[in-house]
């Protein structure tokens, strides 16, 4: 028998991970959190069905790295959500998994201590705790589904899911989406290609059978029924925005041709603002203006926002981290966020009720 190893040549270790059931038992759903999740999902579905005239806004940090600052942000957002609730439905961006262009910190689940210790076991529990805390405030949460196993640990606390620009074309992510309990926004590709997002909605709306794990961590064949609440998220690409009226009209046409509802979310960040956070208010204002001028397809927007503006590199000495400032993409600060949302609510208040018929 050949003596040379032929398997796991590039694997350093297989470390244990608690099962979803163990984590759910440790951090169980509460009545208050469940109410927020259910109401959040139902409201978003009603908006996508054209039955609720409001616009939803997925707003919050590019990534969560400090739960204390994250909850500070969530409390502010909840107060603002109540203030604008006749016009806007605010969903907090609670992103724990970052898809990197090459390499970099991959988020709070992957490396919760930001020291390359990669304690995914602890990160998952901390992420669940944070999500439960946010929901208990009465604020629904939106996240990016990146890892195919994570939804088993966190999915019950999520009201809206994004599939990112780097994974919209991935069959695995389309399969997962077909079984998710939330509406799913598919980003256009990083090149700006919208076809991948339209194809993703079509794929995710159908039943799939694929490999996954159950709550006890056993390998299973997951059989899904299909998700009817897929929609596109325009985030720009290839160095060009795609929130202008021409791009929106082309997106509407692409959805109609695919016999899909013309439901569009505009991401004010990423390539739509050339990754310059200070440009996000211009994108938001433009989108609000389009709605005021009669647009019927824009159902939501996304804003990357934090307590402090901009972003910071992760320092070797973590005590040097600036409180409430992003360690991934740059964000608008809290004062700007309040202004963006209050202005939008004021400008949309009169036009929304008659908008979607
Ligand atoms: O929103 C987050 C980032 O744009 C995404 O994770 C890619 O980041 P990167 O290009 O810095 O790796
Ligand atoms: C990674 C993100 O966006 P995109 O997939 O559009 O790059 C994000 O919103 O964090």
Task: Summarize the biggest pleated sheet.
Answer: 8 strands, parallel, barrel
Q: Please tell me the overall pLDDT.
A: 97
Terminal residue distance: 73 Å
CATH architecture: Alpha-Beta Barrel
Q: What is the level 1 CATH name?
A: Alpha Beta
Instruction: Trace the largest sheet across and list its strands.
Output: 1-2-3-4-5-8-9-10
Characterize the structure shown.
Keywords: Amino-acid biosynthesis, Aromatic amino acid biosynthesis, Transferase. GO terms for molecular function: 3-deoxy-7-phosphoheptulonate synthase activity; identical protein binding. Stereospecific condensation of phosphoenolpyruvate (PEP) and D-erythrose-4-phosphate (E4P) giving rise to 3-deoxy-D-arabino-heptulosonate-7-phosphate (DAHP). InterPro entries: Aldolase_TIM, DAHP1/KDSA, DAHP_synth_1. It comes from Oryzomicrobium terrae. The chain is an alpha/beta fold. It has one domain: Aldolase class I (TIM Barrel, Alpha-Beta Barrel), CATH 3.20.20.70. Helix content is 34%, strand content 14%. The chain is built from 10 helices and 10 strands. The protein has helices spanning 20-26, 31-48, 67-83, 120-136, 151-154, 171-179, 195-204, 245-257, 280-292, 334-348, and strands at residues 55-60, 88-93, 141-144, 160-163, 184-187, 209-213, 219-223, 230-234, 264-267, 298-304. The protein has an 8-stranded parallel barrel, surrounded by 8 helices. α5 links the parallel β3 (141-144) and β4 (160-163). α2 packs across α4, α3 packs parallel to α4 (120-136) and α6 (171-179) packs across α7 (195-204). The longest helix is centred in the N-terminal third of the chain and has 18 residues, at 31-48. The radius of gyration is 20 Å and the shape is globular. It starts with 19 loop residues before the first helix and ends in a 9-residue tail after the last helix. 46% of the residues are buried. The mean pLDDT is 97. The chain binds erythose-4-phosphate and phosphoenolpyruvate. Phosphoenolpyruvate (PEP) is lined by residues 62, 95, 99, 144, 164-166, 187, 235, 270.
């Amino acid at each position: 028998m050949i003596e040379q190893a032929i398997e796991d040549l590039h694997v350093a270790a297989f470390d244990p991970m608690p099962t979803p059931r163990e984590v759910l038992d440790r951090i169980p759903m509460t009545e208050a959190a469940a109410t927020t999740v259910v109401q959040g999902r139902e409201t978003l579905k009603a908006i996508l069905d054209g039955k609720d005239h409001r616009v939803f806004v997925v707003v919050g940090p590019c990534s969560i790295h400090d739960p204390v600052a994250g909850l500070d942000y969530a409390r502010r957002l909840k107060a603002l959500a109540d203030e604008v609730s006749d016009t806007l439905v605010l969903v907090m961006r609670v992103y724990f998994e970052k898809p990197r262009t090459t390499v970099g910190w991959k988020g709070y689940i992957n490396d919760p201590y930001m020291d390359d210790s990669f304690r995914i076991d602890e990160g998952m529990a901390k992420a669940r705790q944070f999500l439960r805390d946010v929901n208990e405030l009465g604020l629904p949460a939106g996240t990016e589904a990146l890892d195919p196993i994570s939804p088993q640990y966190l999915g019950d606390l999520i009201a809206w899911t994004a599939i990112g620009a780097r994974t919209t074309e991935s069959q695995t992510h389309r399969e997962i989406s077909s079984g998710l309990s939330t509406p799913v926004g598919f980003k256009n590709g990083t090149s700006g290609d919208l076809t991948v997002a339209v194809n993703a909605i079509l794929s995710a709306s159908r039943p799939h059978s694929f490999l996954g794990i159950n709550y006890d961590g056993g390998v299973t064949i997951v059989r899904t029924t299909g998700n009817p609440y897929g929609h596109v998220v325009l985030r720009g690409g290839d160095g060009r925005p795609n929130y202008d009226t021409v791009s929106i009209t082309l997106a509407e046409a692409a959805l109609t041709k695919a016999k899909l509802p013309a439901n569009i979310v505009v991401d004010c960040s990423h390539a739509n603002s050339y990754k310059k956070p200070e440009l996000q208010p211009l994108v938001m204002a433009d989108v609000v203006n389009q709605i005021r001028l009669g647009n019927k397809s824009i159902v939501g927007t996304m804003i990357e926002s934090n307590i402090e503006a901009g972003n910071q590199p992760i320092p070797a000495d973590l005590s040097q981290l600036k409180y409430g400032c992003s360690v991934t993409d740059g964000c608008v600060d809290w004062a700007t966020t309040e202004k963006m949302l209050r202005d939008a609510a004021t400008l949309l208040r009169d036009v929304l009720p008659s908008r979607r018929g």
